């Protein structure tokens, strides 16, 4: 028996109209998130991660717009539903946590009331019930002394506490999936680890799925079991976290992994990927990563690779690279190149 994913996105395209032409920011992204699964979406700044996430909840910043794409919930295509029903279906299923908790929260409303708002207005609870739900949620996200903190305003809390409040607000509509856009980027490393722990616990204890956007592979590695790697508006590789880290099957993932600082050898391993991503307002010929790719051959500059099954892990493991058959030798090839330059 096959179980349908909770969320599936097929061939999503998002454009941003410009004064001259358009920026094709999301170029055919497909992804899925299972029930109680934590999935990461990683890539450099500008790769289209946030727009992909926001498109799912109709929260695209103006003037960005969805050009095409299909969203399925529990295997049902919801894209054709009338606007109001679609909105309700999406917001019943998912809610979002943003990077900047200070702008996400209402500065003149007590934090507890902000959590209680959805139970009160959307779920039809009484004031007392909504307050009890909010306090319970504050407990769940690890806020000590929730009765006292219920009465505080956002500026009276630390960044980590505010982000916990945002997670509690996201949970207040009883979503099955949380979309989190760089939820810990603004926090220091210790607080970041605590907030990531909260997200992991929600999955384990409440079976809430997670789609986590981050430019930081270390953050995603602590939280997710499956990854999609985005480059220039497309998914270039996907697979189980451990497979992907052990054996990257796309040169971009390979380069990204080499750029993760290793705590023991910080300086040696902190490599940046030379070059810039392409201009997405221009047509791209061939593989978008080819100009920065250490393994590109002529064909890579002309032929666009499809995202196809790659490696022993079957359909879960996909890569969009014409050179994928040489992946096992990439480390060696880079080492040889470094020696030849000496
Ligand atoms: N409101 C907007 N107006 C114009 N361009 C935009 C807008 N929002 C995003 N873009 C552009 O769309 C592309 C994708 O942006 P997106 O925010 O999805 O990237 P990202 O991978 O999430 O990176 P970051 O972490 O920097 O947000 C980028 O080139 C960005 O500059």
TrEMBL record:
Q: Which UniProt keywords apply?
A: ATP-binding, Cell membrane, Membrane, Nucleotide-binding, Transport
State what protein this is by name. Peptide/nickel transport system ATP-binding protein/peptide/nickel transport system ATP-binding protein/oligopeptide transport system ATP-binding protein
PANTHER family listed in its UniProt record = DIPEPTIDE TRANSPORT ATP-BINDING PROTEIN DPPD, OLIGOPEPTIDE TRANSPORT ATP-BINDING PROTEIN APPD
Q: Which SUPFAM superfamilies match?
A: P-loop containing nucleoside triphosphate hydrolases
Q: Name one GO molecular function term.
A: ATP binding
Its BP terms in the Gene Ontology are: peptide transport
- Topology in the membrane? Peripheral membrane protein
Instruction: Show the InterPro entries listed in the entry.
Output: AAA+_ATPase, ABC_Ni/Peptide_Import, ABC_transporter-like_ATP-bd, ABC_transporter-like_CS, Oligopep_ABC_C, P-loop_NTPase
Indicate where this protein is primarily found. Answer: membrane
> What family is it from?
Belongs to the ABC transporter superfamily.
What is the native source organism of this protein?
Nonomuraea jiangxiensis
A single GO CC term for this protein reads:
plasma membrane
